[in-house]
Recover the amino acids of this structure.
């Protein structure tokens, strides 16, 4: 009887260990995903750099990989990515932070309850819908007819502005979260010393939440760099080594999406170019994500 | 006196500027929805939903795309629910976060959540469609690619749902003789289901609109048969993209009509998530 209960306890314990192992295996899938991404990118990228010099790729100013003889300078794609991202940040930083400050410091609970779902909805709309809007409404109706700008059908300006709008929810929600986690005592202390609401917001809450705000901005920037459908549809596919945002500028992402249509033969130069550009994109966004994660941890540590 | 009035004016101006920021953001959203509705409403009909795509705009429909999307979501859900929830349970209930590998998994999930979707497309193309697994450009590869893309969302939401269950529940259960797993399976997990379900639905509604990864893995734009799990497929966002690339204006209107269908599905999913969140959420 006693022996039986001991083996029973033993089997229960080994069952527990088995389950823990199974759950750990599931967790391993997320590590394997990253490993898969790195493996997929590096395998072809290394072959690519066997054919094209690293210097030629990184510092070349002419991008025409699909012609014979090809030219593989990635700078025009970087310029396109930089331009659309910069325009997006000019839109998203003030609007996103303004919205966050309002929701965190000024809005009554009922207002916040109605506005936040609207922002979540904005975040949930597929980016191809924003691409449609940029191409068929924003460029012709707003930029051309309303503002009388001389822009092409495909242009980096419209793409950048629309990307800016679609990353507002990222800036707004993380920043609001950071500002709301600033302890009430700090605000009350400042009010007690005679500060106005504006002073409390701008000189106490904002600096106290700064690391969260920086995190939100960097994460939004990473999202803008990686955004694909808006630039493919509305930004155009002509690489440009310059800064004429009224014209087409091809981005890293747009090149990948426009070149890969599923029928690119494995092992061709076209195929390898996709991976080289993909690696470039992955490295840029990886650095930004790490910076952002670091800043988020910082504010969580301070106040939680 | 005047100093105080100036201060008040400044406060008011700041407040108005903040409200303007919100109004512009929400206003653009409204403009976008109205624009799509006006463009697409005229073309939307039962024929449009029940026809296959066509080279002539008045016959073209989205049947194959709609079924493709439903299939993709099915595969995606079957992948993300077990894997996402299991990962969340491991990280939240079992992992000792003083161990470097557990911290690495956590950091890894945070980074994966912010990797551009097109990079997942590259992963799908190089590992699932070709290369090691060589499944081809079929529904299964598409669903798994989208699954990997939204898996971090499911993990993060499920972890939050598990964390919200107070530890007294676990301790009470274990004090009555339950093993750790029995406590999790019978007490903690049931209590966390509403939060997990909300996270899964939101992840699916993200996956349903993703276009770039499907372009990468080679979703086909012109398909006139209903998809199967190991067959080629198209999907709503791919159909929208292919309509948009045609130069004729009629096809732009078809794109708008397809967007209305896509947004209708999305809003239904979101409403469902909000309903679950409000109906079943418990406060401890």
């Amino acid at each position: 009887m006693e022996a039986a209960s001991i083996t029973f306890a033993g089997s229960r314990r080994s069952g527990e260990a088995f389950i823990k192992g199974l759950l750990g295996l599931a967790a391993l899938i997320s590590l394997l995903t990253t490993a898969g991404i790195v493996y997929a990118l590096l395998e072809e990228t290394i072959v690519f750099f066997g054919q094209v010099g690293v210097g030629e790729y990184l510092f070349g100013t002419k991008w025409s990989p699909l012609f014979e003889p090809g030219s593989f300078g990635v700078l025009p794609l970087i310029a396109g990515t930089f331009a659309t991202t910069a325009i997006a940040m000019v839109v998203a930083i003030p609007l996103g932070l303004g919205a966050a400050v309002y929701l965190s410091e000024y809005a009554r609970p009922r207002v916040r309850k109605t506005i936040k779902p609207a922002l979540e909805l904005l975040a949930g709309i597929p980016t191809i819908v924003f691409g449609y809007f940029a191409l068929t409404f924003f460029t012709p109706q707003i930029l051309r007819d309303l503002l009388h700008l001389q822009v092409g059908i495909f242009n980096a300006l419209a793409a950048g502005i629309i990307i800016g709008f679609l990353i507002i929810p990222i800036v707004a929600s993380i920043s609001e979260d950071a500002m709301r986690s600033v302890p009430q005592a700090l605000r009350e202390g400042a009010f007690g010393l005679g500060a106005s609401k504006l002073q409390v917001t701008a000189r106490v809450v904002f600096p106290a939440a700064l690391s969260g705000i920086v995190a939100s901005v960097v994460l939004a920037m990473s999202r803008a760099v990686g955004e694909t459908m808006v630039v493919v549809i509305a930004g155009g596919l002509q690489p440009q080594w310059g800064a004429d945002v009224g014209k087409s500028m091809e981005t890293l992402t747009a090149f990948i999406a426009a070149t890969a249509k599923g029928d690119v033969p494995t092992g061709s130069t076209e195929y390898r170019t996709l991976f080289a550009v993909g690696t470039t994109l992955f490295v840029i966004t990886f650095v930004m994500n790490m910076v952002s994660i670091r800043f988020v941890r910082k504010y969580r540590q301070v106040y939680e | 006196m005047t100093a105080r009035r100036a201060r008040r004016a400044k406060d008011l101006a700041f407040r108005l500027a903040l409200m303007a920021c919100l109004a512009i953001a929400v206003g653009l959203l409204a403009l976008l929805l109205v624009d799509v509705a006006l463009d697409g409403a005229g073309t939307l009909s039962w024929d449009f939903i029940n026809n296959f795509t066509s080279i002539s705009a008045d016959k073209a429909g989205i049947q194959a795309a709609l079924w493709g999307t439903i299939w993709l979501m099915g595969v995606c859900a079957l992948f993300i629910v077990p894997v996402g929830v299991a990962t969340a349970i491991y990280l939240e209930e079992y992992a000792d976060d003083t161990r470097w590998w557990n911290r690495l998994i956590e950091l890894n999930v945070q980074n994966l959540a912010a990797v551009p979707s097109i990079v997942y497309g590259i992963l799908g193309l190089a590992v699932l469609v070709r290369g090691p697994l060589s499944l081809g450009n079929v529904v299964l590869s598409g669903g798994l690619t989208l699954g990997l893309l939204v898996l971090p969302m499911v993990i993060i939401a499920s972890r939050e749902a598990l964390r919200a269950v107070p530890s007294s529940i676990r301790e009470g259960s274990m004090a009555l003789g339950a093993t750790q797993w029995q406590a999790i399976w019978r007490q903690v997990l049931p209590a966390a289901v509403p939060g997990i379900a909300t996270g899964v639905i939101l992840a699916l509604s993200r996956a349903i609109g993703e276009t770039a990864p499907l372009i990468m893995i080679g979703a086909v734009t012109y398909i006139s048969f209903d998809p199967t799990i190991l067959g080629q497929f198209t999907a709503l966002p791919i159909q929208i993209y292919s309509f948009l690339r045609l130069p004729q204006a009629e096809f732009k209107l078809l794109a708008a009509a397809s967007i209305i269908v896509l947004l209708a599905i999305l809003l239904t999913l979101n409403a469902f998530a909000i309903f679950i969140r409000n109906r079943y959420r418990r406060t401890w």
Residues 1-10 of chain A have pLDDT under 50 and may be disordered. Residues 188 and 200 of chain A are 9 Å apart (CA to CA). The beta strands of chain A are 63-64, 71-72. The first strand of chain A starts at residue 63 and ends at 64.
